[in-house]
């Protein structure tokens, strides 16, 4: 998408045209390469934005203290996903699931994996990104799309700034 936007900036009739894309463009590389010239650029990501959530302030602060300024749109979701998986594994084990005997135990691995999947489908977890639960297909019931706009951050550098959030009813 970087190349597409660069080509748009070279054509006078396209230079100031708005551009939108999916989560693949919401990257620091896109922001720093494209900059703030040309028309507005938007990107959508299927996550809860933690910069717009006061309840995530502690997470953002702790994350930045440990990992520096590398917080991205997926950081909080990844943290919540890891905790959901850990809870699913604990639940599967508590319900009698057995881990594979060794790396060659394909049948044991398959049975354990299915036990974890079944456990995760029954989880209702409240984390950094809010309440998470899953339908019978294993898809999240928390259907949120966050819209970001390429704009200047507080340091004046190009960055993806929270614009809006849409929740499926």
Keywords:
6 helices; 21% strand; alpha+beta; 4-stranded mixed beta sheet; 40% helix
Secondary structure layout:
Elements: H1 2-10, H2 12-15, E1 19-21, H3 28-34, E2 41-45, H4 57-67, H5 75-94, H6 106-121, E3 124-127, E4 130-133, E5 144-152, E6 158-167
Parallel strand pairs: 1-2
Antiparallel strand pairs: 2-5, 3-4, 5-6
Can you describe what's shown?
Helix 5 crosses helix 6 (106-121). The chain has six helices and six strands. The protein has 169 residues and is an alpha+beta fold. The longest helix has 20 residues, at 75-94. The strands form two sheets. A four-stranded mixed sheet has the order 1-2-5-6. The protein has helices spanning 2-10, 12-15, 28-34, 57-67, 75-94, 106-121, and strands spanning 19-21, 41-45, 124-127, 130-133, 144-152, 158-167.
- H-E string: HHEHEHHHEEEE
Judged by helices, strands and strand pairing, the structural class is alpha+beta
Rounded average pLDDT: 91
Number of strands: 6
Low-confidence stretches: none
The largest pleated sheet is described as: 4 strands, mixed
Oligomer: single chain
What is the radius of gyration computed over CA atoms, rounded to a whole number of angstroms? 20 Å
* Percent of residues in β-strands: 15-25%
What is the count of helical runs?
6
Enumerate the strands of the largest sheet in spatial order, edge to edge or round the barrel: 1-2-5-6
Shape designation: elongated
Helix content: 25-40%
End-to-end separation: 30 Å
Brief summary of the model shown:
The protein is of the alpha+beta class. It has six helices and six strands.
